[in-house]
Amino acid sequence: MEGVMNLYAAQPFWLWLAIGVVLLAIEAMASTEWLLWPAVSAGLVALISALLPGTGFPIQVGIFAALTVVSIILSRRLIKRVNPDQQPDINARDVRLVGQKAKVVEAFIDGRGRVFVSGAEWPAEIEGSAPLAGETVVVESVDGALLHVRTA
User: Fold this and answer.
1) In 10 A of CB 130, how many CB atoms?
2) From first to last of its 152 residues, what are the pLDDT tens digits of the chain?
3) From the centroid of its chain, how far is CA 77?
4) Exposure b/e, 47-78, CB count within 10 A at least 16 = b
5) Sequence-separated contacts (24+) of 68-75 with Cβ below 8 Å
6) Residue 86: CB partners within 8 Å, gap ≥ 6?
7) Rounded Cα–Cα distance for residues 48 and 63 (Å)
């Protein structure tokens, strides 16, 4: 830790640049789009620390936080404007379940049962007639880990 503090004291540019590169490398491996803007913000703070060497660490952290928040908000607005019919996040599995057909694996008793959809078994709830095991239902909505379904 002392080595990092010495590096920061000598030239904070390198520390912020390293943070940006690490965040960018993680983003490249995960491709989530969540770490892209913090990586860019760290790069900008590196540039600011090189151009204005008098700024202290707390100020640089504040600039980093502000740039990260602003860049994320602006990027979300830009993405919505450029691609208004964007599909839900590929990682938001529950949102993608709505409208899919599911196979009943455990018969519904008192409106509750289990269904198999998208490679996994889920607890489900239905109003009205209770389907038997093996029948097909359609996912209407998702409430946490509970699927609300209707007969197909």
Assistant:
1) 16
2) 687 667 666 778 888 999 999 999 998 888 777 889 999 999 999 999 989 888 888 999 999 999 999 999 988 888 777 766 666 555 666 677 888 899 999 888 888 999 998 888 889 999 888 888 888 999 998 888 889 998 87
3) 16
4) ebbeeeeeeeeeebeebbeebbeebbeeeeee
5) 68/37, 68/38, 68/41, 71/37, 71/40, 71/41, 72/37, 75/36, 75/37
6) 79, 80
7) 9
- Tallying the residues shown for the chain, one arrives at 152
Q: Position 58: which residue type?
A: P
For residue 144, give Cα distances in angstroms to 92, 107, 124, 141.
12, 21, 11, 10
Q: Which residue has the tokens 């078994």?
A: 121
Amino acid present at 51:
L
